[in-house]
Design a protein that fits this description.
Length: 147
Amino acid sequence: MKLIIMRHGQASWSAPSDSLRPLTEAGRHEVRHTVEQLQGEGVNRIVASPYLRAQQTADIASEILGVEVDTINGITPDDRPADAIGQLPEQGNVLVVSHMPLVSALTALLCDGVPSDGPGFGTADAAVLSLEMPAAGLASLQRMLPA
């Protein structure tokens, strides 16, 4: 299976709470750029954090890839990577839309077996992982896609 871990696009700081921060126009543009690079990856499922900016990122991906979005509560910025793994689909080619620092720590946990500092993720960056199933240390980083 492939697991593509993507950080949401650039978001505005003008919102009543962190969970309600919307994408900026630049954020929408960078998300489109990244997702267009994913068109050949065979994505058949998208899961996203419930935060507005992640939902908006996933909606753009859904529009481009023709795949519906499922919301997962356990992949927000403050969630633990080990807990997040347990909520990920166990088959298919899945796009996961989430936040820093979770995207970095989750990538490290899946590839290296420890939730240390993983690769840096700019807004709308994505990591393409190859793995048999989501579990610590079982993934291989195939490539990073910058926005």
